[in-house]
Amino acid sequence: xxxxxxxxxxxxxxxxxxxxxxxxxxxxxxxxxxx
Length: 35
Prior knowledge:
There is one protein chain. By secondary structure, the chain is mostly helical. The chain has one helix at residues 2-31. The chain is rod-shaped, with a radius of gyration of 15 Å.
């Protein structure tokens, strides 16, 4: 069971990082719309 916990932890952090980078990109786009 320890192995599964580690896999879930890695997947969770990867999804979180991807999600936050996506949110940051959208926010940056809204704050500085291309000319």
